[in-house]
Design brief:
By secondary structure, the chain is mostly helical. It is built from 13 helices and four strands. Strands 1-2-4-3 form a four-stranded mixed β-sheet, with helices on one face.
Length: 291
């Protein structure tokens, strides 16, 4: 094996180990978002509009989407990824998280394709400067319109419309996207923060923050099983971003140099959840979010 190849492999493995190690630093105690310190003069969601919307079931579209999502199911080793059937359990977990953090203005679309309504949210979202919304925001909207997640999958949070789109029935993934919404809500220059995502290193930073928030929330308010589940799927998912930095996508060996360590470290963390929880600080009953 040539030296450059060895160097890239070593770099990939080292980077994923460091990042996952940092992401494993659970924030104790979990601090809910301080909404009093934020300013949100122009609500994106009109008063009276439901926060959660679900797309109508379509056997053909959902079956095609399930098949298209097979690679993701294999890479993350979870058949619920991009299965286009979001259960009430996942929905309730995200609802409790958003309510706990006061994120009532965040829209959640469950396996739904609604480009016209998303465009209206793009226009109304004064939390992001108009210059960003009508440039990068429009491009983001076009991308999701032409390449719909209803078929291609890909759970995500769109800061330009303040919308979470879910296609996977995994509570930890839903909370991860909620973590992105929380992260953005605390930023003053949201458009600039969103633009920074084009930088791979910043992408890893932001993804790590969202995963850390999800795991910390589950450590404080979730069950041991849900916390274990978070490690098992969020760590290899983080590894995909690390491997992707070295090019080639899912067909590249460098991609798996990030994913495989993610699985190994995630399983290691999950195996120690029960022991770690023996030292968890007591949680005040009134602080527990209701699902």
């Amino acid at each position: 094996m040539e030296r450059p190849v060895l160097w890239r492999l070593f770099s990939s493995l080292s980077l994923v180990s460091i990042l996952l190690g940092c992401a494993s630093c659970v924030s104790i105690p979990y601090q809910r978002l301080d909404r009093a310190s934020l300013t949100h003069t122009f609500p994106t969601t009109p008063q009276g509009e439901v926060q959660f919307e679900c797309g109508k079931a379509n056997a053909v579209l959902d079956s095609v989407g399930w098949v298209v999502g097979v690679p993701s199911k294999i890479i993350l080793w979870d058949r619920r990824v991009n299965n286009h059937r979001v259960s009430s359990g996942t929905k309730d977990a995200l609802r409790a998280y958003l309510e706990y953090n006061g994120l009532s203005d965040v829209k959640v679309r469950l396996n739904q394709y609604a480009p016209h309504r998303e465009f209206r949210r793009l226009v109304r979202n004064k939390g992001v400067a108009w210059g960003w919304r009508y440039t990068i925001g429009i491009l983001s909207w076009l991308y999701q319109t032409i390449l719909p997640g209803r078929i291609l999958g890909g759970d995500n949070y769109n800061p330009y419309t303040d919308t979470i789109s879910l296609y996977s029935d995994v509570p930890a993934v839903a909370l991860h996207e909620g973590g992105h919404a929380r992260d953005f809500s605390g930023k003053t220059l949201k458009g600039t923060y969103a633009l920074a995502y084009i930088l791979p290193v910043f992408t890893l930073y932001a993804e790590g923050r969202a995963s850390n928030d999800a795991v910390s929330y589950l450590y404080a308010h979730g069950s041991a099983e849900k916390e274990k589940e978070a490690y098992l799927i969020l760590y290899p998912a983080m590894g995909t971003y690390v491997g992707g930095m070295f090019g080639g996508g899912a067909l590249s060996p460098w991609y798996y140099a990030g994913v495989i360590p993610g699985h190994i470290i995630g399983r290691s963390k999950a195996a120690h959840v029960d022991e770690d929880r023996k030292w968890r600080p007591p949680v005040i009953e009134s602080e527990i979010p209701k699902e």
